[in-house]
Amino acid sequence: MKNLIAILLFCAIFISQNLFSQVEDISTDRPDQSESPYLMDKGYFQIEAGVTSENDEPVKDFKTNTLSAPSILLRYGIAKNVELRGGIEIINSKTTVSGTSTSENGMGPIMAGTKIKLFSEKGSMPETALLLSITIPFKDNSAFQSDYIGTEFRFAMTNNLTKRFSLSYNIGGEFGAGAPGATGLYTIALGASLVNKLSGFVELYGFMPQKTSPDHRFDAGLTYLILKNVQIDAAFGFGISEKSPDFFVGGGVSVRLPK
C-alpha cells in the first residue's frame, strides 16, 4: 500500500497543480461513509485508495482483525451529470481463539456503478444524486465473496449550512449480497472547513438487515488538500450496536487526473 500511495502522489505532483487552475478543488467520496452528491467533471478521472483496519472482540479469548489493504475506487466523468464508478478491495482476515490465530486472504467482489445528478442545491433543497451499483463475484470458494450478484442504490444529499459547515446524508438499500434479504442503510455527517486546507467530519451511520440485527457505527476524520488535485485523509470510529466492531482506523490518498 505504501508503494501505491507513493506512485499516486508522484503522478499527481508530476502532472502539476497548474493543469487544474480552471477547475474546483478535488471532491472525494472518502474517508467517511456518506457518498457525496457532487460528480466528477466530464473527462476527468479520479483514483481514491485507502487502508482500513477493523478490530472486534465479541467475547473473551475471541478476537478478529479485518484489514482492507487497499480498497480502490475509480471514478470517471462521462457526461455533465453522470459519472462511472468501479471498485475493488483486497482483504485479510485474522481470527484469534485462545491465543491461536488463523488467517484468510482474498479479494472482494468487483463493484461497478454510476452516480447521476438529480437536483442542484436551492434553498432548503439539498444537492442530490442517485448512486446505483452492482457487486459481481468472480472467484469461487472465497470467504469475501457472495454466491450472488448484489445490487445497491442510495440517494446522496448535501446542504451547505454556512461557508464552513455542511450536512451530508444518504439513504438507500442493498440486495442479494452480504446478508440474506434486503439491508437498509443510512448515513448522516457534519463536515467542517477547519483551517486553510484542513477539513474534518463526524458521522453516524448504519446498516439494518432484514433478517439479522442492525449495525450502527460512529466515525470521525480529517482531510488535507495537498494540491488542488491531491487529498490525503485519516479516520477512526467505533461500533455502537452489539453486532458492530469495537473500533476501526484508516487512511488514504485521492488523486484526480486531467482530461
Features:
single chain, 259 residues, mainly beta, 12-stranded antiparallel beta barrel, 5% helix, globular
Report on this model:
- With 259 residues, the chain is mostly beta strands.
- The protein is built from 1 helix and 13 strands.
- The chain has one helix at residues 2-15; strands at residues 45-59, 62-79, 82-97, 100-107, 110-119, 127-136, 150-160, 165-175, 182-195, 198-209, 215-227, 230-239, 247-257.
- It has a 12-stranded antiparallel barrel with strand order 1-2-3-5-6-7-8-9-10-11-12-13.
- The longest helix has 14 residues, at 2-15.
- The protein is globular.
- It starts with a helix and ends with a strand.
Radius of gyration: 19 Å
Could you tell me the strand content as a percent range?
over 45%
Q: Can you summarize the main beta sheet?
A: 12 strands, antiparallel, barrel
Give helix % range: under 10%
Average pLDDT level: 90
Shape: globular
Total number of strands: 13
Uncertain parts: none
Order of secondary-structure elements? HEEEEEEEEEEEEE
Structural class: mainly beta
Strand order of the largest sheet: 1-2-3-5-6-7-8-9-10-11-12-13
Instruction: Note the gap between the termini.
Output: 26 Å
Number of helices: 1
In short:
The chain has 259 residues and is mainly beta.
Secondary structure layout:
Blueprint: H1 2-15, E1 45-59, E2 62-79, E3 82-97, E4 100-107, E5 110-119, E6 127-136, E7 150-160, E8 165-175, E9 182-195, E10 198-209, E11 215-227, E12 230-239, E13 247-257
